[in-house]
Amino acid sequence: MTLFHNMSAIAYSTAFAVAVLIWYGTGRQPLAVAWAFVKALIQSRKYLLFFVAVLAILLLNKYELHLENWIDISYDLTAAMIGWEGAWQAGLQNTLRSDALVAICAVFYLVLFQATMIASVGIYTYVRNMKLYYAICIAILLNYLLAVPFYLFVPVNEAWHANPQIQFLMLNVFPTFEQHYRSLSGLNNCFPSLHTSLSVTLALLASKSGIRRWTIFAWINAIVIVFSIFYLGIHWFTDMVAGVALAAFSVYVGLKLGAWAENRARSNAVVPARDKLEPSVES
After folding, report:
1. Which candidate, 113, 110, 132, places its Cα nearest to that of 121?
2. Which domain holds residue 190?
3. Is residue 2 part of a domain?
4. CA distance 202 to 224
5. Residue 85 lies inside a defined structural domain of this protein
6. The pTM is what?
7. Beta-carbon neighbour count of residue 22 at 10 Å?
8. Per-residue confidence (pLDDT) for residue 282, from 0 to 100
9. How far apart, in whole angstroms, are the C-alpha atoms of residue 171 and residue 24?
10. In the list 54, 117, 172, 188, which could disulfide-bond 155, CB 3.0-4.6 Å?
């Protein structure tokens, strides 16, 4: 059952998912949230700076494979790091074999993963929770900054490629995955699992939002994605554990720095008002 033929199909699906998730998280039409986002970019230099920083790290990740080829690492740590796990993913695939389950996992992995990230930014902007906006930007930056060195110097192959007993079920719904998607996700960029770290990061931050239904969805999204990385035959258990640890650290730092950035923004907004009052007081 083919769901995706190329990256355009994934892009359209992601755009639709973002609109639905924004409506679900805010109860408002997506265009209103989009307008709030545009106004924030125009009105706040700090907001714009954080957003540009996230775009920059995403661009770095896009070209990570080129950097990897330039460095030309010849060793492979798959066996040394996670070969001890065997082929337990194959047992999971055989036990729960279902075309519908493969499709669901693929949609979460390919579409809802990034859609939830984009929608989170829109939702926190719309409800004016700047602490969470700053926190999510910082957490995304840390996830990528800390993961890229591992991808460059700790090459670990995906489970299906390392063990022939494990099937790459993604090809059932996205037959041209290797031709179209592989340039965004290296075959040996396995440890840690960024799908795990980022989805858990979004869930942990959603728990601080006070939006109950968004928190529930974010955790469902994270749980399904963690299951999907195993069921589709991509990751090892070790990758997931490292991803959860990366998420916990990134969220901790993100919330601390997010609170600091919010307090600075508030203090800077108050100072001019005080300055304007001083002449009238002195007179």
Report:
1. 132
2. 7-282
3. no
4. 13
5. yes
6. 0.90
7. 26
8. 36
9. 31
10. 188
